Amino acid sequence: LVMEGDLHRALDEYQFKLHYQPKIDVMTGFVVGAEALLRWEHPTKGTISPIDFIPVLETSGMIIDVGQWVLEESCKTLERWNEMGLWREGTRLSINISPRQFRRNAFVDDVVQTLNKHKIPANSLDMEITEGIVIQRVDEAITTMTVLSEYGISFSLDDFGTGYSSISYLKRLPVSTLKIDKGFVRDIIDDRNDRVLVETIITMGRLLDMELVAEGVEQTDQLKILQQFGCHYYQGYLSSPAVSIENFEEILMADA
Ligand code: G
Ligand code: G
Ligand code: NA
Ligand code: MN
């Protein structure tokens, strides 16, 4: 059981880490970006998954501080990769933004300040959001996203297909990328319904001029189907799980 006090200590004692999972071009196999994923390296319990502590961060409000830490750490990482010549212009690091963090009044200012502090061009950052962000406050969400988009930040709609009214939001939100939930990709070979859904999402996304990222790709046969359907990018164990910054830098160097 994760307690709030443990999470305060985790932040104070630098027990949080970011791991990075490559985003891969479906056709060329090149790394075109990465998703930053939060990890808690507990001194005695080992690595704790965000599934087990993000809900506690959300309900306690601590997600604001931890979310800001994730943003700061991501910008530091981009600064480092820029200095090392590892980060190609036009490629983006994606960070996950929780609804509570996104809805805060100071969110835009904090983001802009953090980018400036680390001299990071806004077009090297992508924000992964879920539909939870727009629930009850669609107009506010659109305003926040529009302002950040004008700076150059892009938005990806995460876990697409798992919510309630995804399609109606597509029309209204300034989202440039759809992430096809790994639940659809898992059985894409054996389950005809999943295969049809994935093809339909890709076709719709492409017609709406969006980019598509398939999540949870583990097998070459899954990748082949995604290639046929015209999916642009993928993430998954077939390429790499999320890895430490050092290991991700090795991936970038091998890819250069
Ligand atoms: O890596 P995986 O177990 O790595 O992530 C589990 C869940 O935790 C995913 O739904 C992911 O979106 C979420 N998550 C990972 N990192 C972050 C983060 O930095 N902020 C938020 N809000 N969610 C995250
Ligand atoms: O909610 P979000 O899509 O951000 O969460 C991504 C989650 O999927 C993380 O927990 C991440 O570690 C996990 N993940 C990444 N690649 C794969 C994969 O190939 N297979 C499975 N089962 N999970 C994956
Ligand atoms: Na995500
Ligand atoms: Mn997802």
From TrEMBL:
The EAL domain, residue ranges: 1-256
Protein name in UniProt: Diguanylate cyclase
Originating organism: Cellvibrio zantedeschiae
Span covered, complete protein: 558 to 813 of 820
